[in-house]
Amino acid sequence: xxxxxxxxxxxxxxxxxxxxxxxxxxxxxxxxxxxxxxxxxxxxxxxxxxxxxxxxxxxxxxxxxxxxxxxxxxxxxxxxxxxxxxxxxxxxxxxxxxxxxxxxxxxxxxxxxxxxxxxxxxxxxxxxxxxxxxxxxxxxxxxxxxxxxxxxxxxxxxxxxxxxxxxxxxxxxxxxxxxxxxxxxxxxxxxxxxxxxxxx
Length: 200
Hints:
Blueprint: H1 13-23, H2 33-48, H3 55-64, H4 75-86, H5 93-105, H6 116-126, H7 133-146, H8 152-167, H9 176-181, H10 183-198
Helix pairs in contact: 2-6, 3-5, 3-6, 4-5, 8-10
């Protein structure tokens, strides 16, 4: 299925195309249309496994979660603001509010256990950590391209901090399905990459 056909709102094609153009920007490495497609696929996988979440806001939040991505720390906030500005009139107010909340949550990937929507989106977004070796290598190379303006030492230090913060979590994933199917592979990938970063 074409990515554009997975847009969850009837109509509002201009907004969909603006988002697709943002993800397709040539300056992006990892946070591109392939990433958006993979997040949507992982949400489908979670739903097929019986993971409970409210599809309307979660799928919309997936579309918006990296709508702005330029390597700056407030990208999630600006993505959430875009959703808050663009969605009124296209989706109910409570959906708009939930989309913005979920997008902001992807800055930390630390939903609470009683937040099924946040758990599903966070897990789908981080599922790349459990990717097979070739895809994980392509992912890390794409992340490096996004930070090509940083020298190697600065990038390694920053990337290691991000990975160490994730590794400190009791669980990388928050849904039962993701913990069973993705956690072990993700931990192995994180450990391997951290070793490569800290012992180049």
